Write a sequence for this structure.
């Protein structure tokens, strides 16, 4: 039955606008799926603000998670998975422990791949369990959400958004195998946009550019390896053949954890919002940490954390690190949950957790030793603290290269570094003022923005909820195939026309020449006859 | 002499940061060059805000301008030009009058080109006069500006920025011959980004895509026609060979008067800031207009303006328009300075000027008759007023197509339209509620933004002044030539490697086969011998 308003059309329009504004004021309904690991930390802050603005938030998560915990800001709906918390933590620990284990490049590569397979498989099983959980799916179908918020790296959220016919907001730093560029139709010329994990910067020589293109070619297989299981699952669940790319292309807005102080300038599409530094909102430093910092005297402190995922380091390495930390006069706050190294110097305080961003914000903080995760690196930039980076995995190598190439920190190879290397690097970033000046310049540029990334993220989530998506930001490129997009059909047609024209012109010329010659020939013949 | 601070390095850094903050608080120094015509209106507002924020602004302009007038917000430095105000106004009038004159397509094209040549020539002479004015140039050299703000369509500002070695901010809707894409290194695939003046939308059929590519090809010649005189002038002035493209590539930030409710979604570079709707800030409606609007009764008003440049319309056309305006019950406010049509109906009030945006904002405004300039169209969208568009020139046809394709207005051909056409179109946009609904939807999307475009413009001008440019937003693509950018060298190399590999493999196979065959042959021979 159509809704009929017994008013003049103009009054009806005004009423509808008012109703939509009121429905916004009453808050929207947001579904959050497939966000865990370090992206959860900034998601949590975002959800807190959305909750305070009156929106209703439901987070769907497996019973076993890495960081996701219940909160008063959202309703948590959990579903069972066929593994325990210990098994999951063990897998994650094993994965990160691997980064410290030596071996030839090939040995390490295959070991890493094996561990990665275990992690991605458990993510896939988690997704399978969700989609097969009839009770939760029925609940979601009945709940009438306004939008879905998800980390697209695990495309479970994308499948659900399609099933529920609701618009989605993605929150990511990038996608495996460059699928984000394809899904957003964002041009990404390999000539100056370095591919992840290549160690390339934006200025590349010939061989680096060749490496970049080869990575693009290998992505065709990598994408298949990573996403094929999800395609099968999605096709079964949605009861029609779909590809993951097809699903990702439907995203309304991509909130991307990068921007152009750390990351290299590159094209963006209108629905790609750069939010690098979203995790830099400050809170009050807890009293116990304030006391430690204040007690550090004129030398101040060094903050040291290899991220929430690394719980233990091989003892030999840990002792080398401890040895190096003892060589600086600063108090070192080291987030570490493994076995305490017996040579732990007096100036090092081990803690199970530390308020990283708030410690970095303290004016007494002199340096930051980090694994180079994008969250940590942005916190280093926000707070203008020079860094010593020990990358372990993923985009951490690339982040480290970016910081180092800007003279704002130094990078160490976690496998090869000696105690002296660590000590030298740490002393350099603390005492050589160029590191502080460079990170200060980056920080000034980064913080000089018209709006805080967290507010920008809130705006776009609300925008998608209010307007049921953002179709006006969807480029028409999505409707073209590869040949059409690159205008190859038009170029071939125009070339054919030009060639045809040249051919006909040539034929005409030859025909004219022949006629002239034959006329001349006849003339000379007739002349010779008359003579 | 180097500046030496007698402090600890860390104290020095803090002091330097403090000093830079203080210098900002004391205000920067902005030079404004080559902004006239309709872009001046929004520039003026922007300069007003910058002035109130404590910045010093100097506008350099010829003694004869279209709209630029002295103001308390800036110091105006003028220089003489070899033509009078009457001559300039006459040229502009003749140019716009031409739009109403009939003739075959070719006749109109050549007439328009002739008039356009006169206008661009006078702009070029203006630039020449500025660069040859030793007194002003010396003053500018001595004034030590922090940044230069200019409309890059006339590249006089770009030449000056290069000479003065100061960063520049461009304010434009686009550039002739697609030079903006080239200068920003922004990808602009012709397969879904319609070229100006083609009448194409973002969804094109094969022939429209072919037309788009042919326009790209013709741009090579058009750019030459338009910018070659400036290249000669710039090379002489800067005393080295430069191209206009080379100068434009140095812009720190491009403030672009478009966004994606009116314009089609397309890639953007990090230093391209979309500011469509920058001109929609409301002021109080003057009392005389308030009175007219209030007296219009339940039917409300229609706002009619063909822009500040059209002063008169041929009498026959004016009478047809007047006739049509009489057919609606609304009061029509018509901005018109030409001879009053004798058949002017009672509901039409001719005015020499009207506060267009503030009138459109009035809830009693039912429709907007406009020539489709981007300023006017954005004001129509901001205020959700359905439009009847009579495009005259330039991007107005494209703007009209965009509004019409979104069902938010109707377009009329200014040469062919009859009194009935105008009346029908006007009645349709007023009475058919779909137009109001569509423009309301566009308006809701357009106004739902995290920050007002005017504030965004202020932020970026200040950013460039504070940081002496924005080099971190400059893509590395600027350092590549055409072959490198498109990776053609790498692709050729990889192809060569693959072909070489195939060739060697084939040769090896053939060699092996031959050896096998010859062995067999020898064997069979030796066999036959033994037999």
């Amino acid at each position: 039955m159509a809704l009929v308003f017994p008013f003049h059309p103009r009054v009806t329009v005004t009423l509808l606008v008012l109703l939509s504004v009121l429905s916004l004021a009453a808050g929207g309904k947001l579904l959050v799926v497939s966000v865990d690991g370090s992206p959860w930390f900034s998601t949590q802050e975002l959800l807190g603000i959305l909750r305070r603005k009156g929106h209703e938030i439901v987070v769907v998560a497996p019973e076993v998670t890495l960081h996701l915990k219940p909160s008063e800001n959202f309703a948590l709906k959990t579903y069972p998975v066929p593994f325990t918390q210990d098994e999951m933590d063990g897998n994650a620990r094993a994965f990160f422990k691997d980064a410290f284990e030596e071996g030839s490049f090939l040995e390490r590569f295959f070991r890493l791949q094996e561990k990665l397979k275990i992690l991605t498989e458990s993510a896939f099983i988690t997704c399978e369990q969700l989609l097969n959980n009839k009770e939760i799916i029925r609940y979601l179908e009945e709940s009438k959400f306004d939008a879905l918020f998800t980390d697209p790296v695990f495309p479970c959220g994308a499948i659900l958004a399609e099933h529920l016919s609701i618009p989605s907001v993605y929150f990511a730093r990038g996608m495996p195998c460059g699928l984000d560029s394809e899904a957003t139709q964002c041009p990404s010329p390999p000539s100056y946009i370095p591919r992840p994990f290549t160690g390339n910067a934006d200025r590349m020589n010939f061989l680096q550019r060749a490496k970049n293109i080869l990575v693009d070619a290998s992505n065709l297989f990598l994408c298949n390896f990573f996403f094929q299981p999800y395609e099968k699952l999605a096709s079964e669940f949605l009861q029609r053949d779909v590809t993951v790319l097809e699903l990702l292309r439907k995203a309304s807005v991509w909130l991307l954890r990068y921007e152009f102080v750390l990351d290299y300038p590159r094209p963006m599409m209108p629905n790609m919002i750069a939010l690098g530094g979203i995790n830099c909102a400050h809170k009050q430093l807890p009293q116990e940490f304030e006391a430690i910092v204040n007690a550090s005297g004129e030398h101040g402190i060094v903050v040291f954390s290899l991220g929430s995922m690394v719980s233990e380091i091989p003892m030999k390495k840990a002792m080398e690190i401890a040895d190096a930390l003892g060589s600086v006069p600063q108090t070192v706050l080291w987030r570490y949950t493994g076995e305490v190294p017996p040579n732990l110097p007096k100036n090092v305080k081990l803690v199970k957790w530390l308020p990283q961003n708030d410690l970095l914000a303290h004016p007494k903080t002199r340096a930051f030793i980090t694994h180079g995760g994008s969250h940590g690196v942005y916190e280093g930039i926000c707070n203008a603290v020079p860094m010593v980076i020990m990358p372990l995995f993923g985009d951490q190598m690339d982040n480290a290269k970016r910081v180092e190439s800007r003279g704002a920190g130094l990078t160490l190879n976690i496998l090869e570094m000696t105690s002296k290397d660590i000590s030298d690097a740490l002393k350099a970033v603390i005492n050589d003022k160029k590191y502080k000046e460079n990170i200060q310049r980056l920080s000034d540029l980064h913080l000089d923005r018209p709006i805080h990334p967290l507010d920008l993220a809130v705006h776009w989530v609300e925008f998608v909820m209010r307007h049921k998506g953002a179709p006006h930001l969807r480029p028409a490129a999505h409707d073209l195939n590869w040949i059409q997009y690159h205008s190859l059909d038009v170029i071939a047609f125009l070339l054919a026309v030009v060639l045809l024209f040249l051919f006909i012109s040539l034929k005409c010329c030859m025909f004219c020449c022949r006629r002239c010659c034959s006329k001349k020939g006849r003339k000379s013949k007739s002349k010779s006859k008359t003579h």
Summary: The CA atoms of residues 147 and 166 of chain B lie 6 Å apart. Chain B touches chain A through 64 residues (CB under 8 Å). Chain B is about 50% helix and 10% strand.
